[in-house]
Amino acid sequence: MSGLRWFVGGGTVPMRACVGPPGISLAEASREGRVARGGAVLTVRADAAWVEDRLARDELECPDCGGPLGPWGWARVRVLRGDPAPVAVRPRRSRCRWCGVSHVLLPVFALLRRADLVTVILVGGIKAAISGGWMERPR
Question: Is residue 72 a part of any domain in this protein?
Fold first, then answer.
């Protein structure tokens, strides 16, 4: 995996902090809370210390009910195309203390359901605008 840069929440994170939420069955999920599938994804700063501080102080708000979000493990690793090299990102996961819904906290340089960094998408958009909307794909 040469040329692959790692980004775990924006900074150095103790290994114990990288452990995700405990595995639960569907029966337990109905009692313990629910997972937001296709719901709102929160965009946060790329600074891990800032995100951890806000989660610890209950300063991030649930987009569903307005309740405080607390830390709840980590989301799966995503590899995003970057320039000049791909970037591996493992976003923070949070859970609302009121309604129990979990949310992935994406750093600002990553977009929901996109495999490219924001900068790569922006450069592609600028090139398309300059060339009149048509670009030849690199091979």
Answer: yes
